[in-house]
Amino acid sequence: MARVTVEDCIDKVENRFELVLLASHRARLISQGSQITVDRDNDKNPVVALREIADETLSPGDLKEDLIHSLQKHVEVDEPEPEAPALADQASAIEAEDDSPDEPIAFDRMSEEELLAGIEGLVPPEKSDDF
């Protein structure tokens, strides 16, 4: 079979740079032991990857998703959000717990004069040439 070129694949992936990224990623996967979907015909891994894209044995969208996933450092798992009525029930349960007379809530109170006296008593940090 004749060598495959980027021009053979450009109708599958319109952006040449994206095509090169996808083909190089697929070539790396092949070198790591991934199954080949076309005959090798003594071709090297990048050529096999381009032939797979040209023959549409692999979806460019799937390759792109796999490439993005391989580059991610932190993968977030999509979890369904709780329904709105469940949130309202949780909020009412929390409010019911807050209204319990068993534990009185106490807040620290400070007058304006005490606050000003505390601020005036603070020592400014030493200045240095590092900043």
Provide the fold topology.
Layout lengths: L5 H4 L6 H16 L13 H10 L5 H12 L12 H15 L13 H9 L11
Classify the beta-strand content into a percent band. Answer: under 5%
N-to-C SSE string, H for helix and E for strand: HHHHHH
Q: Assembly type of the shown chains? A: single chain
Radius of gyration over all CA atoms, rounded? 32 Å
Structural class: mainly alpha
Distance between the termini: 66 Å
Instruction: Compute the number of strand runs.
Output: 0
**Quick one: overall form?**
elongated
The percent of residues in helical segments reads 40-55%
Summarize model confidence as the mean pLDDT. 80
What would you note in describing this structure?
The chain has 131 residues and is mostly helical. Helix content is 50%, strand content 0%. It is built from 6 helices and no strands. Helix 2 packs across helix 4. The longest helix has 16 residues, at 16-31. The mean pLDDT is 80.
Explain briefly what this protein structure is.
With 131 residues, this protein is mainly α.
Features:
131 residues; mainly alpha; 50% helix; 0% strand
